[in-house]
Write a structure and sequence with these properties.
The protein is of the alpha/beta class. It has one domain (2-268): Rossmann fold. Helix content is 41%, strand content 22%. It has eleven helices and nine strands. Helix 4 (60-67) links the parallel strand 1 (50-54) and strand 2. The longest helix has 17 residues, at 28-44. It is globular. It binds S-adenosylmethionine. S-adenosylmethionine binds at residues 6, 9, 13, 25, 54-57, 60-61, 76-78, 81, 104-106, 123-126, 129-130.
């Protein structure tokens, strides 16, 4: 079941790789979240860091980090996403700073060495495509030097917008999907992405052995989730204010466990 779930997910992302940096994978709301992630990446990694991007997609973050002076090993389970990331790095003339590898986050043992990276990041839910994050935690602990950082954005369990939106349509299956502790099938482009949802605390528990928790916060708590992009298009004026609230109070106790995604920062002991 697990192997076939991972395979389904790879086929699904392969099928969208050609245009995933367009409206489906990088619409205005996703770009807002990406900007937040970049702020935290910049705060976490000094210039000239050696980093791994887990689930790099088409390489938007990897190329951005490379242009800021880092060296990135951009990895993804979907070979077509990896090909896109490689092409993007070459076009941006940072091919020498972005290495690419079709490696799933569940098979990081394929990367040789120990304590050779300053950090690992993963943006926008790649880690939700794994049934268990203990292997990721174990391999990150091997690969990162002491003091190095993990910075992840992950799809959370408690999303007030989603609960309100699907309740208003009496779509109870969709309301309940994030509360399962199992991998759940989510449709994409006629395929299935098997998705497991986490709270920040559940996720941290798997990393607690070797990593200290530095910070976590909600992303898209007041701002709506990316699939409600039509709201942004209709009410553009609201959005900057909603994001201001996200930035101001997204890290407060209780509120930080809500939101469409959460962002979490940990340090290697
Ligand atoms: C929602 S996309 C995000 C992509 C990219 N991080 C971004 O910010 O645009 C999720 C990515 O996770 C990748 N993925 C899915 N399962 C994975 C796995 N087991 N290991 C690594 N990457 C995976 C997909 O191929 C896809 O590129």
């Amino acid at each position: 079941m697990i192997v076939s779930a991972l395979d389904d997910t790879r086929v699904a992302f392969d099928s969208v790789a050609a245009h995933y940096d367009g409206p489906s994978g990088n619409n205005g709301l996703i770009q807002d979240m990406r900007r937040e992630m970049w702020r935290w990446l910049d705060a976490s990694f000094p210039r000239d860091s050696d980093l791994i991007d887990l689930g790099c997609g088409t390489g938007l973050d990897a190329v951005r980090m490379a242009t800021r002076g880092h060296r990135v090993l951009a990895t993804d389970w979907s070979p077509r996403m990896v090909a896109r990331a490689r092409g993007r790095a070459a076009s941006a003339r940072v091919g020498d700073r972005v290495r690419t590898a079709a490696i799933g986050a569940h098979e990081l043992e394929r990367i040789a060495g120990s304590a050779i990276f300053d950090g690992v990041y993963s943006n926008l839910g790649a880690l939700n495509c794994l049934p268990d994050l203990t292997p990721v935690s174990r391999e990150c602990a091997r690969l990162i030097r002491s003091g190095g950082r993990l910075v992840f954005t992950v799809i959370g369990r408690w999303c007030p917008w989603e609960i309100a939106y699907y309740s208003s349509r009496a779509d109870w299956r969709r309301v309940s999907v994030r509360f399962s502790r199992r991998m759940m099938p989510v449709g994409m482009n006629g395929h299935t992405v098997w998705t497991r949802y986490w709270t920040p605390r559940e996720l941290y528990r798997m990393f607690a052995g070797e990593f200290s928790l530095l910070h976590f916060r909600a992303l898209c708590l007041f701002a709506p989730p990316p699939y409600l992009t039509w709201l942004k298009d209709r009410h553009e004026g609201w959005f900057e204010q909603l994001w201001r609230w996200d930035r101001r109070v997204g890290g407060w106790p209780l509120l930080r466990s809500l939101g469409d995604h959460f962002l979490i920062v940990m340090a290697r002991r």
